[in-house]
Amino acid sequence: MKRLPVVLFFLLLVSCNGFQSLNRDYFNALVLKAENERDKDLLREALNIAGNNEAFLKRIAIASGRIPDFQVFRKVAGKSRGDKEIADLLAITSMFNGANFNKRNLVKILSSLPFTEKVAVALLNTKDKMAFNIVLNRNKLMKYKLSPAIAFNLWRAKPFVNEKILKEYYEKSPFETVYSLYRLKVKGIAKAKDLKDADLNTKFYAMWIVDNPEKLLDENIWQLKVAYLKATEDKNQAKELLNDKNPLVKETAISVFLKKGGNWKVLDLNSFTPSQIEIALPYIKDAKVVRKIFEKGGFYAYVSAPYLSKQDTPLVESSNIGWYKKLKFFENIEGKSFAIEKAISIFEKSGDKKALCYLIEKVEEGVLKKSKVITLVGDKQGKYLSILSDAGIVKGKSKKLPLSYYLGAIKKAEKLKTFTIETDRGKVKCKFFSKDAPLTCLNFFKLADRGFFDGIFFHRVIPGFVAQAGDPTGTGYGGPNYSIRCEYNAFSYNSAGIIGMALAGKDTGGSQFFITHIATPHLNYNYTVFAKVIDNFETLSRITRYTEIKHIK
């Protein structure tokens, strides 16, 4: 009964002429509140209010996967009346990270919906034998109309896909089948001659499974050079690219060259950036050279500290590189047990976050128990929430807020249009997806507006994958000391420049974000997409580890 006034208020709005816009705003606020507070009862009330309103049902379809709530999901499917747009949203919703709907019940509902591309993909994603056969048989009945979408997503049904099926779909849709071949690590089917006119994303992933990857190379496209080096680990090609103008290509070349036995002494270390030096350091066995790098200071000291010798202990201890890297140094010279005990001592004395980040890393490696960290932190979990949630030790809780808060949040989010990330390598202009991820966008804007990102560096950059930043500790475990709810949506990681929230599991976001270098479809519906790059794409190819964010506005 406690929610009856809300229902009555909405029914009043529905019945009044001239209140359509107000009704929509309050409805969206109600659903947003239900999502953010993971309140199934509130979502079910919203469903009652929605009736057969198509726009409202679409909104609830997304919410049913975000919370998740299978009862609402099923009811929306029943109300959809064959609407393809609602069917598509339900299909996408079923793939949201954490939805985990009962497989048999899900297959039953999906197979009752109009057989669209997205429904076919969702059925494949269930990894159910019956669903897999439904997809293949219906596609056949439709004269293979959906073959491209199915070919691209066959990898989702890995237990049932064999070489015969892959060959069949490759003949029909060679470009699209490439990604499935890549994900399934199947070679011998894709031919370079078939893919000469393919798009960048297709050629990128074809490098790993095609017969002659060198035929897909393009000297003007850095992603393809990175893909070729990673896929072939061609030492000679890597040597030729050691001085490539693109820093991400150069870093990949250094990595492959050294991994395949190249001599580090041929490298011009004096011209290397800290991120390039970091790649080479594991192969440099000359203590004097490492010490010389450390003495350059800044990020050079930061990356080289773990590789110094025991006699350099006073040098490391007196430096200002922070405890995370100092502990990595002690781990290398004294062992993990010694470094763990030292980290515990440091944290007990000073509460140093970087010492805690080191301990969290050891938890993830399985050499330290979570219970030890919980005891160590004690009643100060809130202070270290971002770090603890990244390790899955604690989960953040959403506060119960009035409906007016969410109504205001939607209005504020509507005003967010674009933002620019200013780095020491250039600017990147981006567009918010504030309608589809309002709370995520607002959180990002508020952090940027108070200068949270200023001076933070990109701590994780994987050439040909993503560039990630937003951690003030620089370790990958830091954040703003709170977590936000995921707002999975219909956007996909279908190109370079898509911006998503970095997570360590559902609802562990905060301040860390990533920008894609290429299409990364396996990330779809697992990380909230909240923006995309719209200008200055060339800057993306210049961002490496330790690139500094000057300001975001």
Describe this structure in words.
With 553 residues, this protein is an alpha+beta fold. It has 3 domains: 1-114, no CATH class; 238-390, no CATH class; 403-552, Cyclophilin, CATH 2.40.100. It contains 28 helices and 8 strands. An 8-stranded antiparallel sheet has the order 3-4-6-5-7-2-1-8. β3 and β4 form a beta hairpin. α18 packs antiparallel against α19 (298-304). The longest helix has 17 residues, at 20-36. 47% of the residues are buried. Residues 11-19 have low confidence and may be disordered.
Features:
28 helices, eight-stranded antiparallel β-sheet, 3 domains, single chain, alpha+beta, about 550 residues, Cyclophilin
Please tell me how large the radius of gyration is: 26 Å
Mean pLDDT, as a whole number?
94
Number of domains: 3
Q: Could you give a short account of the major beta sheet?
A: 8 strands, antiparallel
Order of strands across the biggest sheet?
3-4-6-5-7-2-1-8
Principal-axis shape equals globular
List the helices and strands and how they pair.
Blueprint: H1 4-15, H2 20-36, H3 40-50, H4 54-66, H5 70-79, H6 84-93, H7 103-110, H8 117-125, H9 129-141, H10 147-153, H11 163-172, H12 174-184, H13 200-206, H14 222-232, H15 235-240, H16 247-259, H17 274-280, H18 287-294, H19 298-304, H20 313-317, H21 323-334, H22 336-350, H23 353-365, H24 370-377, H25 385-390, H26 403-414, E1 418-423, E2 426-432, H27 438-449, E3 460-462, E4 466-469, E5 498-501, E6 513-516, E7 529-535, H28 537-540, E8 549-552
Antiparallel strand pairs: 1-2, 1-8, 2-7, 3-4, 4-6, 5-6, 5-7
